[in-house]
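so my prof wants the structure for this chain in the tokens format not the other one, which i didnt know existed until like an hour ago. anyway here's the sequence
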Amino acid sequence: MAFYDLSKEERLVLVEKINQDIQNDLSSDITENIIKYFSDEDTYIRKTGYLAIGKIFYNKPELQQHILSTLKNLLESDTSTTLSASKVRQTVVNAAGEIGKFHFNKVQHFFDVGLFDKHHSVRNAVIGSVKKMGERNPVPVLAWAKTYLKHPDKEVRREICHGIELRGRTHPQDILPLLKTLEFDETKRVSDTLIHVIGQIAYKKGCLKTVVTHLNTWKNKLLVEKALDEIVDVHNRYKKFAVLTQQEAIDFIDGSYKN
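here's what i got, hopefully its the right format
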């Protein structure tokens, strides 16, 4: 039975069981239950597993080093592309993301490795983790991300661009200098992601002014025009969440962008 087929009470019992099973594994220096939950078909079981790791890491300081070594072994012991193995690595990266919200220096290795995993789900977990870590712990996470924005692998550049988006939704000034390094990227998938991210960081309170002011310093005017079109479009697509109406966004851009 899937996680959300259970009643709320049953889910609470299951979450407590998963937490206890994983803690018992760690205390006994085994990984039987950890692997079972990390490889589960149900996304929410896997999520409960990696959230459990995060909780134990913070609640049981004496287990922190063992948690890190256990996760490292799980990440590197089976690099095959079988579904169960990739699910384990995906969940390991997500668990590292929980730790990296406050201790990025202790888990950077997981993202250096996961970014180049053969399976897309593991790489996607890196993006998701960079998003949540960047939101809570931006300084070291963005410094790390910056080192990959000129990587020769276009997919790495695209994934990092996507990963820093969430921080930009509340603090666009933090990621705009990083995004600018991609303004002349010749790969369409990268430039498309760049334009998408610029749109996503421009519709919350106070963000449009910050974004347009920074875009005035960019040299690739063709890309900037596409980004401004995306910003205008986002103000319509997300009109329930945008601070300005689409017309107000158009008027602001017309008055502020120096083309």
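also thought this was worth mentioning. The two ends are 58 Å apart (CA to CA).
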